Every structure is written in C-alpha cells, then in structure tokens.
Amino acid sequence: xxxxxxxxxxxxxxxxxxxxxxxxxxxxxxxxxxxxxxxxxxxxxxxxxxxxxxxxxxxxxxxxxxxxxxxxxxxxxxxxxxxxxxxxxxxxxxxxxxxxxxxxxxxxxxxxxxxxxxxxxxxxxxxxxxxxxxxxxxxxxxxxxxxxxxxxxxxxxxxxxxxxxxxxxxxxxxxxxxxxxxxxxxxxxxxxxxxxxxxxxxxxxxxxxxxxxxxxxxxxxxxx
Length: 224
Prior knowledge:
It is built from 7 helices and 12 strands. It is α/β, with parallel strands linked by helices. The protein starts with a strand and ends in a 7-residue tail after the last helix. Its cofactor is a divalent metal cation. Pfam families: RraA-like.
C-alpha cells in the first residue's frame, strides 16, 4: 500500500566505487554536476565532519515518527547510508544516541535525517557521519506509516534507493547511480585543476585575465 510499504532495493552503487569519493570534497563533485543539485543548506553535519559515502537506503516517514527507521536499521547492509525524509519537521527527533550507536556498530556508512536529532552533544563528538536539519530533545512517535526503498526528495534533491550519497562539512549530495563512475573521474580532474590554481596563487603566477574578459563580455562599465 502506498504510504505504508517496505520494498526491495533493485540496485546499489558498488561500495568500492563509493569509498573512492571519500577523498573528494563534496563541493568538487557538486561543481561537476553543474551546481544544480543540493540537499539544501538546512542539512548540516552534526558529527565531527568526517566524510561519508555509500549507497542510499531510503526512508519516507511521517514527520516526528521513526518506526520505519527502526526497521531500516535491521535490514540495511554494511556500507549503506540511511537517508530519512521526515519532511524537514523539527518538532520531534527522529534519531539519537542509541540508534546512531546501533548504525555505527553494524558498519553503516552514515545517516541523513531530513528532520531533527537529539543527544547532539554525543553525536557531535563522534566521527560517525550524521547529517540533520536540526536538534530537539523531544522524542519520536513509533506508529508509522512510512516507506522504505522508495524515491524521496530533500529540498528538491531526488534520491533513489541505491544512489550514491556523499557528505562532508559542506553538506550532502546525491550522485545518481548511473553517473557515479563518470562523476568520480570528473571530480578527480577538477581536484588536479584546483591544486594547480592553489600553487599558482601561492607563487604569484595565477592569471586573473579571465575576470576582465568576463566583465568585457557582459558589457560592464569600468570607470577609468
């Protein structure tokens, strides 16, 4: 039944491929996706900022209710990123120290909560990746309904089960399953370019001519 169902994930990005993204800033991958995709500024790292990458196990739940998250913790695979769309509601926490501890123990790659967490002081000191929209001490309900392994969206960013989800101190990003390998190569190439730029800036040889060329192209008046 739509709104209350648990489905099987049909495919998932390879863990070996996913883990290669741990060495690449989310911002670089975002640039390679034309800066058109983002999980929104509200979803922030609640942990110590350790990078995250893994295939998504998606959950759509009623705001303030975490029944399906409890189920997901039982069926997820090591390396998975558990992504919960709780509607962005911050009234009740969807997870806290106990459930995060279980996810860490089982070898999951991280958790993304489009909603609130609690026990934020404990989570903040840990390296296990937890991203969320806010914090509240009020606990969740556990009545459902909800769905597991269905397409979800966070601030317009669509996440399908098995897509690659990455995160660092700048936020989270979904890389579509079919494009993960291509974007890995593109992001690596961008890293090389940025490293060269940093070296040129440090040595005073960086060419800023592109700035004046762009101003000329857009017809900007520059008083002399």
